[in-house]
Prior knowledge:
Number of domains: 2
Helix content: 25-40%
Order of helices and strands: EHEHEHEHEHEHEEEEHEH
Radius of gyration: 19 Å
Strand order of the largest sheet: 2-1-3-4-5-11
CATH class of the largest domain: Alpha Beta
Amino acid sequence: MIKIVVMGAGRMGTLIRTVAEAARTEAGEPAFEVVAQIGFDLSELEGAPAADAIVDFSNVATLDAVAAYVCRTGAALVSGTTGYSEEQLATLRALGEDAPVLWSGNYSIGIAALRHLVAQATRELPGFDVEIVECHHNQKVDAPSGTAKMLLDEVVATEAEVGAGTYEPIYGRSGLCGARDPHEVGMHSLRGGTVAGVHEVHFFGPSEEVTLTHRAESREIFVNGALAATRKLVGMAPGFYTFDEVMFG
């Protein structure tokens, strides 16, 4: 049984705990024991018992407390918190020197496949204009989503790989912005209602368009992926890992 600390007591944190406590191994035994769930009072994490892993889908403001817990206990860290600055991401990478750390903007297996397809389409549709559109519920605090940024990274990295030059994101357009630069990638964020998550990558070419779409019907797909990754990450050597490396490596 894997002992975990759940960071966050909102919708995602509550769902992670519910799914984790219901999860069973192949032998029918409980897969996880939640030894603590931390909400707004970060001081509770200072006294939380050592666990095999801490699963964090909370807020960027909790990073220092999470990092301190990992350093104190050596617990593996599975983080799905988005909106980190480059300095905060550097802190996460540095934690990988002492413990296995996984950070991903999305834990859906479908999104992992979408990223691979985006790279393939970028490679096979040279010269096509690329636009990324994401839609989430009206309570999401960061924009663009971490997943949209991951998809952007796939486009930029693939264009560089094939020698197409440097591509830059344009976050929305307004006013007399002029003709579209062929080396820009439009990033557009929609917010409303209770949408769990929709991501579209559009490739516009002469007289044709290709669109790749992923729709999340429930946040549970992210929880299932995060807990599956937790089971694999625990016991791995210290390091900073991607979702692909943990799940498919």
